[in-house]
Amino acid sequence: MKPAPRVVKMGEIPLSGESLTELMREVMRRRKSFRFRARGLSMSPFIKDGDVLTVVPLAGSGPKRGDVVAFVHPDTGKVAVHRVLRAGPGLFFIKGDNVADADGRVPFERLLGVVASVERAGGRPRAANRCAGAVIASLSGSGLLTKALGTARRVAGRRGSGRP
Predict the structure, then answer these.
(1) What three-state secondary structure class fits 147?
(2) pLDDT at 81 over 50
(3) Residue 56 burial by Cβ neighbours in a 10 Å radius (0-12, 13-18, 19+)
């Protein structure tokens, strides 16, 4: 017997793993948008743990460089949300902004949709910015973004500890 999903505060249904993947795949197949709460730090500070993302179905030939996509991760089989660094015919090189290692080449069939907006702490949704995304993709692909974020965290930690 499988446990039934339970409704929790604000009408949210907690899903993860295969359940989230299959539901999102079906919603995208029907050409509808899908909202869910992001978990993890791999896209911080641009997407933070707890932000609400709206993912829309793919259009045309797929996402462009700098777009943030929801996809089925090749290693885990779970939904992940990372940025497209390079787009080629049927393959997309994807990486989280705040991680050192890329997800590698992800085939079009594993892509679920493109993040259209990010809502933080009940604020107004921020639309995705393709131009800014392309710049971030360049920095992330070169490793400069990860280094800069690490430096910023160390500086913030020293300030918080009372050290100059």
Answers:
(1) helix
(2) yes
(3) middle
Rg (CA), the chain: 17
Domains, the chain: 9-156 (2.10.109.10)
Dihedral over alpha carbons 84, 87, 91, 92 (to 10 degrees): -10
User: Following DSSP, what letter does each residue of 14-74 receive, concatenated?
Assistant: ---HHHHHHHHHHHHHTT--EEEE--SSTTTTTS-TT-EEEEE---TT---TT-EEEEE-T
CB-based contact 109:48 (threshold 8 Å): no
pTM: 0.71
State how far the alpha carbon of 51 is from the alpha carbons of 41, 99, 116, 127, 142, in Å. 11, 18, 13, 13, 26
Q: Is 8 a residue whose pLDDT tops 60?
A: no
